[in-house]
Design a protein that fits this description.
Residues 1-146, 194-221 are annotated as: Disordered. By secondary structure, the protein is an alpha+beta fold. It has helices at 2-6, 12-19, 22-33, 63-70, 152-170, 237-244, 332-351, 365-374, 469-472, 509-513; strands spanning 272-279, 282-290, 296-304, 318-324, 395-404, 407-412, 424-433, 439-451, 474-481, 484-492, 496-505. The relative contact order is 0.10.
Length: 530
């Protein structure tokens, strides 16, 4: 590259003599590139794919006839041609001649040299007078060029001629045989891909500002968050409570001396039991909690009733906690059996209020599901089901969310393949369109209903699979709210446009959670510790 720069710039006469193109060459250039309208060139655009090498005429093999053959491409058709493909294929490689080939056989031409700018289309060239013209008034062969009136296309054509001139003068070999002035047919010239750049040279560094900015990764379709159960720090509310009782956790107050004995993390949790045990001046608080995510925790705090010991002094205030994590999904047969045990009774309990104008309990929507599950207490031969705990009503089998009619997310849980009669439906701030127009607002923020008809998803489901609410289909329920006694209604989840939805299966308490709630961890329960 440096040696190329050191070369003296030849005159146009040198170019003419070196290439033996004479007057006909510049006349041809004038005809091809004379006075074309100015155009906007996009220097960053990728040039179109080069045409394949044209066939050579066996009649002549001199340089002049070769140049004429290159210029003899048929003009493009008058109708618009299709755009070049985005990844053009390379032109065919030339057929190399062996050293023993006959001298009368001309070598095949090389592929066209790739140039930085495409040459103007021959078919669009005007034949009017061009600034790049020959002055014959002096009778001399010296070429004169009107440099002040060169068009952009004329400049490109001239630079292309310089490319070819330097290639022939430098003689940098690349193994491709081309006919050239003063050279035999077997002599070679290196094929230069870019102006002043040799093949194999490393590409220039890309400036940081010119690099495209990476796009932020879009969330996967099955990645969505729900507002229930509440988020936790360590994976479950029970484990969070166990960490709260760690000696490394700082307590801001002696909360254990309050009458209810609730730790700060258990405020507002309805499933809570506690007890006291006193030995002289030593008192021990016991407590058990079942959280909304159905994890459980038990704790104890032993302290002296005399004085005001620092709650973080582990010698004076002894703390202890253990927990059970969130229960794992149940198998298909276990969920079907649970439906056969509880489902029909739960659905029948809700339907017994339908059309009577009588409310269940207070008339709150939650009461209908809560009382249906409590109904089993009078039957001692039926295991107690998981009671309604906040917005959870047993084993979660589906959860979903929608932000519009066409943006829904959801996930199936457990081994069953359908929604069954007696399952419990929970909404939060949801809107569902009705077929005849209008929509229902379900939840302000929460709403509960009992499903009274089976619903088979429109696609195969399995535990952990992404399933949109639309695939669940139509859910037929019995529901009530304050001011609206129990009645039957149908909701098409494919028309869900906003909010969240959960579907629960009533299941046995001990079978699913491992134990009933007590103030102290029952014997035989394999609770975990931090």
């Amino acid at each position: 590259m440096n040696s190329l720069r050191n070369l003296s710039v030849p005159t146009v006469g040198d170019i003419k003599k070196a290439r033996d193109i004479g007057k006909s060459k510049f006349s041809e250039t004038r005809d091809r590139f004379s006075s074309q309208p100015s155009r906007n060139f996009d220097t960053s655009a990728k040039p179109p794919p080069p045409p394949p090498p044209p066939g050579r005429s066996p009649a002549s093999h001199d340089r002049t006839s070769s140049m004429t053959a290159r210029s003899s491409f048929a003009p493009p058709p008058s109708h618009p041609s299709p755009p070049p493909p985005s990844a053009p294929s390379a032109p065919p490689l030339p057929q190399r001649q062996s050293s023993g080939s006959s001298a009368g056989v001309s070598p095949s031409p090389p592929p066209p040299v790739a140039r930085r700018f495409p040459r103007p289309d021959d078919s669009t060239a005007s034949h009017s007078a061009s600034p790049l013209s020959r002055n014959n008034s002096t009778g001399s062969d010296q070429t004169k060029i009107d440099w002040t009136n060169l068009t952009q296309e004329d400049k490109l054509a001239f630079f292309a001629l310089l490319d070819e001139y330097f290639e022939s003068r430098r003689g940098v070999g690349g193994g491709l045989t081309v006919p050239s002035v003063g050279r035999g047919p077997s002599q070679s010239v290196k094929h230069v891909e870019e102006l002043g750049e040799e093949p194999g040279a490393p590409p220039p560094p890309i400036r940081a500002w010119s690099r495209p900015k990476p796009r932020a990764a879009s969330p996967a379709p099955d990645e969505f968050t729900l507002s229930f159960p509440p988020p936790t720090q360590y994976g479950s509310a029970g484990l969070d409570l166990a960490h709260f009782f760690s000696p490394q956790t700082h307590w801001d107050s002696a909360w254990y001396k309050l009458p209810n004995g609730r730790p700060p993390l258990a405020e507002g949790v309805p499933a809570f039991m506690s007890s006291w045990e006193t030995h002289g001046m030593q008192k021990t608080l016991y407590g058990g909690i079942r959280f909304a995510d159905l994890s459980m925790a038990w704790y104890s705090v032993a302290f002296s009733t005399s004085g005001n010991a620092d709650p973080n002094d582990i010698r004076s205030v002894k703390r202890f906690a253990e927990y059970l994590p969130c229960p794992q999904p149940m198998s298909g047969p276990a969920l079907v059996e649970a439906s056969e045990t509880y489902g029909e009774t739960v659905a029948g309990f809700a339907e017994s209020y339908e059309g009577t104008g009588e409310y269940c309990e207070r008339g709150e929507c939650w009461d209908l599901a809560d009382q249906a599950l409590k109904y089993f207490k009078q039957f001692d031969y039926v295991p107690e089901p998981v009671p309604s705990t906040s917005c959870a009503h047993g084993h979660l089998i589906f959860s979903g969310k929608a932000t519009s009619l066409y943006k829904q997310w959801g996930k199936w849980r457990g081994g069953d393949d359908r929604v069954r009669r007696g399952d419990i439906l929970q909404w939060r701030s949801a809107k569902v369109n009705f077929p005849g127009g209008g929509y229902a607002t379900l939840g302000s923020p929460d709403h509960t209903a009992v499903i009274v008809a089976e619903a088979i998803p429109s696609e195969t489901v399995e535990d952990g699979k992404s399933v949109k609410p639309a695939a669940i289909g139509v859910l037929e329920v019995v529901e009530q709210s304050v001011g609206s006694p129990p009645a039957r209604q149908r909701y098409d989840l494919s028309q869900m446009i906003e909010g969240e939805v959960w579907i629960y299966r009533p299941v046995g308490l001990v079978e699913y959670l491992g134990t009933a709630l007590e103030a102290r961890c029952p014997e035989g329960v394999n609770a975990l510790r931090v």
